[in-house]
Amino acid sequence: MEAGDMDKLVALVWSLPPPSPLDDEMIFRAHVYVAFYTRQYLQFFCLVQSRMFSHCHHGDLQAMWLQAHYNDAERMRGRPLTAVDRYRLRKKFPFPPTIWDGDNTSYCFKDRSRSYLVDFYLTNKYPTPAEKKEISSRSGLSVTQVSNWFKNRRQRDRMTQKQVVQAGKSESGYTLSHDIIQSR
User: Dihedral through CA 74, CA 77, CA 81, CA 85, nearest 10?
Assistant: First the structure.
């Protein structure tokens, strides 16, 4: 929205009665947007947590949720946030269930994207560029993310194999020396 449109929305929303969770979602969402735009973050947080929103609006509301926390923290600290500060705020203030799509993120990817990658990996550890594009479109990840995931997964598998081999050597070495001692 342009600033002029937002100013008109602010004037309209302020002319309405206070929001109620029973209001039409569009009107309630207008109250949420106005609270965010006017930097009334406490009201924004209360409104977002008081009512379920349609799934199609979760992305925008989640971005606003994070930005409101970032802006509030910057105002209180009097300095710009670092990446670590933003990470800590995301952990401290997770999305409320009213705007959360229900997918847990694991390793920075949604569970369904990760499971699709794992399923493909079990059949082919070295996908071609065309296969990477196909995986990318089906998983919702970029081709670079897909490539990096496969590279990292192969590396983790190699490290796990090395650890198993080293553990086997130490076990067999112990057993061998134990057998020699027993036979003496």
Answer: -120
What angle separates helix 111-123 from helix 129-139, to the nearest 10 degrees?
A: 150
User: Percent of the chain at pLDDT above 90?
Assistant: 45
**Residue 73 predicted with pLDDT over 60:** yes
Distance CA 88, CA 82 (A): 10
CA distance 72 to 81: 10
pLDDT band for 127, please (50, 70, 90 cuts).
very high
Compute, in degrees rounded to 10, the torsion defined by CA atoms 161, 167, 170, 176. -90
**pTM for the full predicted model:** 0.54
